[in-house]
Structure formats: C-alpha cells, structure tokens
TrEMBL record:
GO molecular function: DNA binding; DNA-binding transcription factor activity
Name of this chain's protein: GntR family transcriptional regulator
InterPro entries in alphabetical order: GntR_C, TF_FadR/GntR_C, Tscrpt_reg_HTH_GntR, WH-like_DNA-bd_sf, WH_DNA-bd_sf
Superkingdom per UniProt: Bacteria
Transmembrane recorded as keyword: no
Keyword flag Nucleotidyltransferase: no
Pfam families: FCD, GntR
Organism of derivation: Thiosulfativibrio zosterae
Gene3D superfamilies: GntR ligand-binding domain-like (1.20.120.530), Winged helix-like DNA-binding domain superfamily/Winged helix DNA-binding domain (1.10.10.10)
Domain HTH gntR-type: 8-75
C-alpha cells in the first residue's frame, strides 16, 4: 500500500511539473517527451512516467502515438480558429454565470491574481506571468460552479495556450493584464451581456496576435525539469 501511495505521489509530481512548464510555454508544441530521460530526471521508473504522460494526454496537452511516443501536442494552422471559437463559446457562457455572484474572498483572489500577473511581467518573469494568466481563466471557470463546462474550459484554455506558444511571434504570450483587470471590473460592476462581450473581445485579441506558421524549438529537458 505504501509503495502504491509513493508511486502515485511521484506520478503527481511529474504530472504537475510537466503541466506547469507546458502552460508556462517552456516546452514548445511538438517537443518529444521521452520516457528514459524523464525517468532519470525525476528518479522514478518509466512506468510512473508513462502514467503521468497518459494523464497529460487526457488533458489534451500531450499526444501519444504508437511506436513514436509522447510529445507536446501541436495544432495544425487550419484548426486554430476552431479551438478559439470553442473557447469563446464556453468562456463567454461561464463569465455570464459569475457576474455579480462572486464572494468577497473570490473577488480578492482574482484581484490578487491580476496584481501578481502584472508584477511577473513587469519584472521580466514571463513564464510565471503566463502561468498566472492561465490560472486567472481557470479560476473564473471554477467559480461558475458548472463542472462540465469548467472542465471543458480548462482543456480549451490549455490547448489554446499551446497554440499561442506554437504561433505567437511577439513573445507576449497572448493575454493582456489590462484585459484581466477590465474583466474583474465588469464581473463586479457590469451586466452579463457586458462581461460576455468583453471576454469575446479579449479572446479575439489573443487569436489575432498569432502568426500561423510553426516555430521549431528544442529545449533542454534536464535544465527545465531537474529543479523539482
């Protein structure tokens, strides 16, 4: 029993660390996630690594192909608009659900997220800023209390974050802190229609920042992940 518990803990650590560096856009779409070096980096068996990669494939951020292995998921240019359209539909519905309904604690949490996101970008910590930006959208999804839509939103947010990593040339990462501040304000003081419109504009800004041409980047897995 203890061995199984330890194995699950190791799997969770690998899952969390890989998910973080993927959402922080340190691991670019198309990068292979090879079991042997990953097992050496984390000091675990390949079986534990394989289970973590399988979970990430269920989240839609890793793809596993027979006789090829696992890699960070890529999105063909012709499918990009479909993912953003799906995300707009889901997130616009979710933000309508939270307008005027957040607790004082939830409001303070969102405002703190925006401040922290700003601080990270202002100090040049782009990776942490991107992660905080993603958490902002995850939080709104969870606050809706509609679990099926929230889970769908999380997968679409993660997938479009990878699309931004694949096709964004400016290095901005997509989301703008000023947009998030405005979203918090409209959730507090606006109407569902106003919130939906602002979320739609925000997500269209992200999509319009993309240059639909694949970027090739090969990272050092050891340097990225050994800090665990």
């Amino acid at each position: 029993m203890e061995k199984n518990k330890s194995s699950r803990n190791q799997e969770q650590i690998i899952y969390d660390r890989l998910f973080d560096v993927i959402l922080e856009q340190k691991l670019q779409p198309g990068v292979r996630l090879v079991e042997v070096p990953l097992s050496e980096i984390f000091g675990v068996s390949r079986t534990v690594v394989r289970r973590a990669l399988l979970r990430l494939s269920h989240e839609g951020v890793v793809e596993i192909k027979p006789n090829v292995g696992a890699s960070v998921v890529t999105t063909p240019a012709e499918e990009v608009a479909q993912y953003f359209e799906a995300r707009r539909i889901v997130e616009c519905a979710l933000i309508r659900m939270v307008v005027g309904k957040l607790s004082h604690y939830q409001v303070e949490t969102l405002q703190a997220m925006v401040r922290e996101e700003n601080r990270y970008f202002d100090t040049g910590n782009r990776a942490k800023g991107l992660r905080k930006s993603t958490e902002f959208h995850f939080f709104i999804a969870e606050a809706s209390k509609n679990q099926p839509l929230a889970e769908m939103a999380k997968q679409l947010i993660a997938r479009t974050s990878l699309i931004v990593a694949q096709y964004n040339l400016s290095g901005s990462g997509g989301c703008a802190c000023v947009d998030h501040s405005a979203l918090v304000k409209v959730v507090l003081e606006g109407t569902p229609d106003e919130a939906e419109k602002l979320m739609d504009v925000h997500l269209r800004h992200i999509e319009e920042s993309l240059f639909l041409k694949k970027q090739e980047v090969e990272p050092d897995l050891y340097a990225l992940l050994k800090e665990v």
